[in-house]
Amino acid sequence: MLPRIEVHRIIRATLTVVMILASISGVARADNVDTLIDQLNNDSSDKVRLSAALNLTRNGDQKAILPMVKALGNDSDKNVRGACAVGLAKLVTSATKSSIKGLAVSALKTAEANDSSTFVQQQAGKALATITGSGGGTTTNNNNTTASSGGGGGIYVNVGPMSAKTGSNDKKFQALMVTIATKTMGKTAKSMATTWPGGVPSKGQLQAKKIEGFYVDGTLNTLTVKQSGSSSIVSCKISMLLASFPDKSVFGFLNGGASVQASSSPKDEELASEDCVSAVVEDLIAKKIVPTICTKATGPCP
User: Fold this and answer.
1) Which secondary-structure segment (H or E) carries 230?
2) Are residues 182 and 278 in the same domain?
3) What is the pTM of this model?
4) Which residues contact 201 (CB under 8 A, 6 or more apart)?
């Protein structure tokens, strides 16, 4: 029988720009740059500002660079900030005035180092790599660790896309599993990098830095809800694998499960499902994945 645990509500997983695109239907139009800029910097709707950032990126007008710099540093929504980082990577080119390029690079460096969202930090780092031709330095902020572009030695862990077999909410749980796995790695294994300047490293890049590569992926196998009087019991089972990276030669399979009690309302059951998945992923990463990596690696471990 799975252990019953009580967990606090977990903040929902960060949605990537690609996922959000599916839910936006023409909130802002791409045929008027000035209107889009005004929407990006002034509209009260997160969706309108996000749509404006995406359309400004597609439009390709250099006039949008400074408004995006402003939004990257000031917007309250992490998805808008992330979209602006992506947009700057596309808009800042060799044709951009050096003074404007400098402002964009400075804003991206600040976001990579200080933004409260791991997602925004990652997008800013990628944008910097695109614009300057090199990534940032070693950065550890909140729950994210970025591999250093210099030096040598260490451990890099590539977190896979995860999968789920629960039905209509699979994409939501996949995103949640990735977010919790990455955050837990950052909290329990700060010496292990989960991102790489410019994207995903090749075998040659890892060898050049004398960094050992590992791969972690997982599957939400079951998620059930059972009524018990006025309450519901939400149970979940997750399996995770460990492999070398980038060749992905599997050397470990790990399993975990939990149960969470909630009221019988659909909303509480939904939150309990998220809590259950988050708790199991966090437990597997902290208590099984990280220790197993340490038994295999020759580099420093927490």
Assistant:
1) none
2) yes
3) 0.53
4) 147, 156, 211, 213, 246
